[in-house]
Amino acid sequence: MPVKPIALVSTPWPLYSRPSVQLATLKSFLQQEHPGLVVDAHHFYLSAAAALGYRTYHDISERTWSAESIYAAMLYPDRAADIQKLFQRSLPASSELHRVDFARLVEPIKAVSDRFIESVDWNRYGLLGFSICLCQLTSTLYFIGRIKTMAPSLPVVVGGSFLAAETIPKLLEAFPQIEFAVHGEGELPLSRLVEQIRHVADPAAVGSVSGVVSRFAMAGSCPPTRSQLDDLALLPPPDFSDYFRLLDTFAPENRFFPTVGVEMSRGCWWHKSAANRPGSGCAFCNLNLQWEGYRFKRPDQVFREIEDLTRQHQTLSVAFMDNLMPLKAAETVFEKLAGSEKDYRLFCEIRAGTSRTLLEKMKHAGVVELQIGIEALSTGLLKKLNKGTTAMDNLQIMKHCEELGLVNSSNLILGFPGSSGQDVEETLRNLAYAAIFRPMRAVDFWLGLGSPVWRYPKHYSVHSAANHPNWSILLPAAVAKQVPLMIQTYRGDRTIQKKRWRPVKKELAEWKKTYAALRRHPQASPILSYRDGKDFLIIRQRRLGDDPMNHRLAGTSRKIYLFCSHPRSLVEILETFPSVGADQVRSFLAMMVDKKLMFSEDQRFLSLAIPARPRGAGS
Ligand code: SF4
Asked: Which of 40, 143, 180, 308 has the smallest CB count inside 10 Å?
């Protein structure tokens, strides 16, 4: 039987400046496994972004509810008025989108979507696949509905991180246009599905495929099975060519230099190592529903991929897509990248416990921006979050980033269920020490389907988890009620938490303003810095609306301050400086902490000032 091509589609709202790594990896894997098979990867969201304007697209895509609203209004025009209200509600007060008529946003997206859908001969394909990640539900449903009117017999398969095991059977029940859903990692299941589909005329005749739930055999496939690669070395490099070809068709003013995504690993080693706790991994996290265990590529493979992809596509921006990098392998990869002497611009996500040595290697290699899993500044709360870190770890990594000139974009979770007044007080206290570093972003806790809080609600005093009410504005009542969806609501202490965390929210806003004002000038020195005179030290503490304060530390005081550049216990300090009386050391440390020049926690001390003249990492 002649092999029909396969179409893979990614609909709005992923980051427009990055090709879909999901589509690109599936495409190259399918072509490796099925020589001669044509796979068209349609990174359609890029066309949508260009049609809408990149800035507007970005602003809409930043929030789930604003993003999901646009296609929901196309799918269900009868509920457009309510959807519009939700769209407006979900935007920050400062958003320019408040000034734009909602219909004026929907119109160009609908036009470009319909134009694209009508321009493709869908009947030439043997299978149509969609990758559904966060914010892509309604857009995918719109595409499926429209394409099925043009090609009713084209079988549709969906997969992606949005599809938890609980979601799949109900989604297939609610949307009969979808024939198959992949549970977990896509490569092997999709490849086997392709193999089967080419031998049958009717998708109902497809036999059981591990990792695929078929709407024709739902009874036998609950709970859905998974099937994933044992070794990521089997993955060929992602094929981004369709995205770059599309970009090349754009008018010059709409072209840009994209960031290519590279996977070093799949899964999360912290999630794995915390497996004996109630719900392994961080309590709020549902990023690892797709994977079983933790796998990573060898450094050579990653390095080669980066070298080849950036050369092929003539770009130097690379984003590591890992939920959590393999530390040892990452060290080698960054060393190799630094050794290549190319001016890479790299982005990655890391844990707060990442060592200074690795951060320096990242900096050398070209890491500019990091997302660090800080999440809280209270050790009590970090325990509840099961982060495995302390407030001191967090302050330490913030300090390293400030010193190395790494942009640290991290979140502070507000309103986590079960946070106590004490957790909030501790946060407020520690914010006063963190305020000299780059500010964090306030993020209200949301309950993710499949997260430990969702799986073990009693442990977190959460009751009656259900789909978030906004889904019933976006989708028909029956769907919103029956299909378990990624963003959930719950009964518990939400109102109390909202009130409890209000002062923190206020402090975070102040922090942002003060930091921006003090560091506005590109030449502005760090807010808290020191200059070393070798037998004395001058610490400069900049203040908003006031002259800087200078502190001089001489002799042993200087030595103790520098010794505490890394967290040190009181015992260590006393042992290292035996000639100074314990009381004298204690009172010196207390004074340093009181002046916000040092941070202390649990009899451990960390000096907060960073060198005025950057050292190390060639910064
Ligand atoms: S938040 Fe990060 S470190 Fe924590 S479980 Fe999720 S992926 Fe792992």
From this structure: 308
Question: How many C-beta atoms surround the C-beta of residue 112 within 10 A?
Answer: 18
Q: How far, in Å, from the CA of 591 to the mean position of ligand 1?
A: 37
Q: Over the stretch 370-428, which tens digit does the pLDDT of each residue have? A: 999 999 999 999 999 999 999 999 999 999 999 999 999 999 999 999 999 999 999 99
Average pLDDT over residues 575-586: 97
Residue with CA nearest ligand 1 atom 7:
323
Ligand 1 atom 6, closest CA: 285
Closest among 414, 406, 460 to 437, alpha carbons compared: 406
User: Which residue shows structure tokens 């799918």?
Assistant: 75
Instruction: Give the domain extent around 319.
Output: 257-446
Provide the CATH number for the domain around residue 32: 3.40.50.2300
Helix 421-434 and helix 502-519, axial crossing angle in degrees, nearest 10: 0
Query: Which atom of ligand 1 lies nearest, measured to the CA of 269?
Result: 8
In a domain, 500, yes or no: no
| Alpha-carbon separation of residue 318 from 260, 351, 389 (angstroms) | 5, 19, 28
CATH code, domain carrying 556: 1.10.10.10
Q: Are residues 285 and 187 in the same domain?
A: no
Please, which residues have CB within 8 angstroms of residue 174's CB and are 6 or more apart in sequence? Answer: 478, 479, 482, 483
Q: Tell whether 455 is covered by a domain.
A: no
d(CA 481, ligand 1 centre) in Å: 29
| Residue keyed to tokens 């004002």 | 517
pTM value is 0.94
Query: How many C-beta atoms surround the C-beta of residue 512 within 10 A?
Result: 15
Phi, psi torsion values for 417, nearest 5 degrees = -60, 135
d(CA 506, CA 511): 9
> What is the distance between the alpha carbons of residues 452 and 43, in angstroms, rounded to a whole number?
33
Cβ pair 168, 217 in contact under 8 A: no
Asked whether residue 216 falls in the same domain as residue 283, the answer is: no
Closest atom of ligand 1 relative to the 274 alpha carbon? 5
What is the three-class DSSP state of 531? strand
